[in-house]
Predict the 3D structure of the following.
Amino acid sequence: MSTIRILEPTVANQIAAGEVVERPAAVIKELLENSLDAGAHRVTVDFSRGGKAQMIVEDDGKGMTGDEALLSLERHATSKIQLASDLDRISTFGFRGEALPSIASVARFTMQTRPASAPSGTEVAINGGKLVHRRDHGMAPGTRIEVANLFHPVPARLKFLKSDETEAAHIVRLVRLYAIAHPEVGFLLREDGREIFRSPGKAPLLDRVREIWGRQVAEEVTIMPLFERPGMRLSGLLGKPGVSRGTRQDLVTVVNGRPVDSRTMAFALTESYHTLIPKGRYPLAFVFLEMDPAWVDVNVHPAKREVRFRDEAKVRNFLIESVLAVLRARADDGLPTTTISSIAPATLLAAGVPPTVSAPIAQGGAPAAYVPPSASPAQPTHVPAVRLGWRLLSRLREERAVFETPTGLAILDIGAAHQRVLYESILAQFTAQKPISQPMLVPLSIELDPLPASVLKERMPLLASAGFDFEEYGRNFWRIQALPAWLEPEEALAFVRDLLAEMARREGDFGRPSLAYDALAKIAVMKARRKGDSLSDAELMELVQALFRTVQPGTCPRGRRTYVEWTDADLSRRFG
Ligand code: ADP
Ligand code: MG
């Protein structure tokens, strides 16, 4: 017969550890969060063999007395909350008081800690949940925790660990996230004593990304100024149009200083970029959202970083509006989007652009208003070509052209640029209240199979609002009496057939009118002839002007780049 018994604390802790620490990076996460909660200004993380052999987190935070150190290893011992009602306004990372006892129960755990007020520190050593020793230890104020032989006391968990490289990759990404989220703290990450990165304290976000994520990533982003709504603030860095990733690896979202996963935020970002990057790929972003802690629920899962918002729709809309505003503003500036963040202030001045665009906006202060180049006295305002400052140097093969720009050298893909311009003009006509429709002197007639015919009947209001006028005049026979102005009569029949086939195929997708217009415009663009090779120089300049009047000049509607640019700085670097 079995008897009911209370589990021994060690066993209970090992079970809890299954929830809190699934892998080495999760241990580092808990230790890092404790260091941050303890008010550390610098944190050093060392690991070896993907963290399996050893992990050390050392901080200069407030430390613990000997008694506190022992107490911290008891289950549900926490200094961070007292009442259940405190859960509604958590501002620290930890609050469950589970991490330290859980970690200590599944590894060899050594903690050295000293509060500034005490003359010396304490060392507590635990192995597989059993106290090995507690003794005085001379040290500077702060805390150093070493975790060795993770999961040796529970071999069953060892086999879930991945290769050293994979576990190391998780650790590096995790520490990067915390480092980027905490500009006030200096982080140092080392693997086997070799420095992986060192975060610069209090530097502008872009410089921090360069140090922490690497130079290449820093060149792929543009600055997002501060946006505000009642109770919410948003700032950060956004990937340049056309830059994308196959995973969410570089989609970084930070809420109230906490790196988080949020479906809502990831979706809003991906959605905002939908014509700028290929389908199924993710944009690059470092987005910082601050809001009343009472509006965020972090208590979703002990080990996951997933957050929920009390009002998901509000957050989503705020993000989409802000991101689109940045992407549009870049276009309105008449400056190629891909250069804005990487241009040195001196270069900007030379180009007549006030250097405020590259100011470190994400650092708290309100962003300086960006003054478009035309407002500068050095720039004539009446000639658009001069305002943009692109000068045609040469054609490159049939489909490309080379330009000198105020900031470097650019190569334009004429077809892609043309598609972007056409796309937005068609889209604008679709979404206009009264599209321009051209009546046909001699109506076109078209015979349709039952399926496209039924789609046509169903979609009649949409097509009418886009400028088509169809009239049924027999079984499966239709007359087209008017066409949208952008559609040439000789292309109309083929276009209508393609359109109806597409509509039949993507039935569900047309629920929202904006999506339908978008799809219509894309189909229209695909049908449009490529006129690139026959453009005169003047027409080519007009195309460039038109391109930079579009909302997203950097990419074609399918996400391919319309131009690539090398800034003077890029070029100087290449020449070494
Ligand atoms: P929680 O963070 O949920 O409170 P932990 O088990 O992670 O639970 O830590 C228990 C307690 O130990 C904390 O509440 C804190 O008082 C103390 N502590 C842990 N790490 C540190 C540290 N690096 N510096 C100072 N105090 C710490
Ligand atoms: Mg904790």
Notes: Residues 333-386 have pLDDT under 50 and may be disordered. The domain at 220-329 is CATH 3.30.230.10 (Ribosomal Protein S5; domain 2). The pocket of magnesium ion (ligand 2) is lined by residues 30, 33-34, 94, 99 (CB under 6 Å). Residues 488 and 528 are 10 Å apart (CA to CA).
